[in-house]
Amino acid sequence: MSDSAAEAAAKLDSRSRHAAPPSTSRFGSRRRTAFVLGGMLLGLLLAALDQTIIATAMPRVVANLGGLELFAWVFSAYMLASTTITPIAGKLSDVYGRRWIYLTGIVVFMIGSALSGASQSMLQLILSRGVQGLGAGVLFPVTIATIGDLYPPAQRGRIQGLFSAVFGIASIVGPSAGGYIVDNASWRWIFYINLPVGMVAFTVLFLALKEPTDRTVRRTVDYLGGALMATAIVTSLLIVLWGGDEYAWTSPQIIALAVAALAAWTALILVERRIDDPMLPLEFFRNRVFTISATSTFLTGAGMFGAILFLPLFIQFVIGTSATESGLVLTPMMLGMVVSSIVAGLAMSKLRRYKFLAFVGIGMMAVGFYLLSRMSPTTSNAQAVLNMALTGAGLGITFPLYTIAVQNAFHRRQLGAVTSGLQFFRGIGGTVGATAFGAVMTTRFKDEIQSLIRDMPAAARSDIPIDRLTSIVENPQALAAGTGGEMALPPEVLQLMREALSSSITTLFLIGLVALGIALIVNVWLPESTLKTTWEPEGKAGKDAG
Q: Whose CA is closest to 225, among 179, 272, 262?
């Protein structure tokens, strides 16, 4: 080939690499792709709303069903089931295809919703919420993996922004919608309302989601690996959920769970090393993009759940926002998350780079957490809103970033497994973070209150209803239920308790700040690669990409 011909070929190749995106995806026409995207967004909204809508309805549920001692398990059962099924669902979608796994997830979620609405006892509700969690644990990872099938990496940023917007909308609308439903209808409708929405999402995706199949590829399912993985995850999460709360860390129950978890993880590793197509490919961890991204999502997930769980308590009781406005407490944070996620997604699609955004996003979260840790009972609502918006903006940048980076580093046939693996680490981070933060807050709050009571004059101590105070110390979240006469505590005692709770919660943000600092350091080793403009990987995929 002559020099001029070679130069012309090079120019042509350069133009093709920077050409406009193709008009169709692997699923067919733009119209079909739009229907699939709409159905996925609807299904994701269904699962995301269910995580937020129940919070404001739970007091009415407990009043109707009883079983206050099982209150926490209404949330824990959902979280446990969802986190356990996530990596398994992603792998199954790689083997059997996204369509039937996703549709199964919607059906399971709707069955769980119907059972939850029909529950006649708290135990029935907990078991039904577990079924719901199984469905939701399928929807989240398979939705994000399907985006990898619909759009090449360079285009996924702007689409991921839409999915982050769905989470933001659910976080804003959910609590208010839950309060409205229980005030104007039965609490059971917070579950029944999922059924018509789920049917619409199911119908749209059943008709529009038609996957191309490769009948020359025969793949087996690692059922033993899946069973071992589920056992390992459940036992590990139960240690986190029960340790130091339901049972002492040195109790026979926790020791037995620790032995079972260790045995399950060991067996899983041994089995997965010997299987051609494992449920948990250990080669993923040889890829630095996956390893760094998983570590970062674990750390940021812990920080995210810490902020979401304990910021409302601080805003409502320490600063003094009324309980009727509690559903809107997290709105600034969620709006910041939605806007920044969309902007970050567009930036990645435009620049086809992502590493610099990791430092921007985590750095903004760190600054936000530092400002949150400096809050006190004298903090104004405006300052709290600014701090929350900054934290949410940083969090929103990290949402699409790591998903797209990991999907860009692996072959398309592995998208379900790597995407669900990333979601799994975020879920584990949130579970560990929420549990650990709750334990630290309660312990510190107890110490503060005990010190408060010791320092009070004997005459003032005699006026304190000790039984009421004891229940608050055991469950600091009870402070958000009301103030004044409803709390049955003298105003001066309430003020001192605000200070104690303020100190307890701001300590959590300092712990979160340390975790984010570690995440910043870890991201120094995050490999940078140009986002691909086609679905096919360049060169060897998977283990060689990092």
A: 272
User: Which candidate, 380, 381, 344, 345, places its Cα nearest to that of 363?
Assistant: 344
The residues near 269 (Cβ < 8 Å, ≥ 6 apart) are: 282
Q: Cα 424 from chain centroid?
A: 9
DSSP string for 359-386: HHHHHHHHHHHHHHHT--TT--HHHHHH
Computed on alpha carbons and rounded to an integer, the radius of gyration of the chain in Å comes to 24
Alpha-carbon distance values, 312 to 54, 317, 350, 362, 523 (Å):
15, 8, 36, 22, 30
Phi-psi region of 122 (alpha: psi -120 to 50; beta: other; left: phi over 0): alpha
How far apart are the C-alpha atoms of 522 and 292, rounded to whole Å? Answer: 7
- Distance from C-alpha of 83 to C-alpha of 102, rounded to nearest angstrom: 16
Give dist(CA 394, CA 77) in Å, integer: 29
- Nearest 5 degrees, angle CA 424-CA 261-CA 430? 30
Name every residue whose Cβ is closer than 8 Å to that of residue 170 and which is 6 or more positions away in sequence. Answer: 45, 48, 49, 51, 52
> Which residue bears the tokens 């079972």?
260
Can you read off the two tokens belonging to residue 498? 């605000």
DSSP state of 212: -
- Eight-state DSSP code of residue 458: H
> What type of residue sits at position 423?
Q
- The pair of structure tokens assigned to 382 is 């405006």
Non-local (6+) Cβ contacts of 12 within 8 A are: none
Question: Which pLDDT tens digits describe the chain residue by residue (546 residues)?
Answer: 444 444 444 443 444 344 334 444 555 567 777 788 888 888 888 777 777 777 667 767 777 777 666 766 777 788 888 888 888 888 888 888 888 888 999 999 999 999 998 988 888 888 999 899 899 888 888 887 887 777 777 677 677 777 777 777 777 777 777 777 877 878 888 888 888 888 988 888 888 877 655 544 456 677 888 888 888 888 888 887 787 777 888 888 899 999 999 999 999 888 888 887 777 777 888 888 999 999 999 998 887 776 777 777 787 777 766 544 555 666 788 788 888 888 888 888 788 888 888 999 999 999 999 999 998 888 887 888 888 889 889 988 888 888 888 888 887 777 777 888 888 888 888 777 777 787 787 778 777 777 766 776 666 666 665 555 555 655 555 555 444 344 455 666 677 777 888 888 888 888 889 999 999 999 999 888 777 666 554 444 444 343
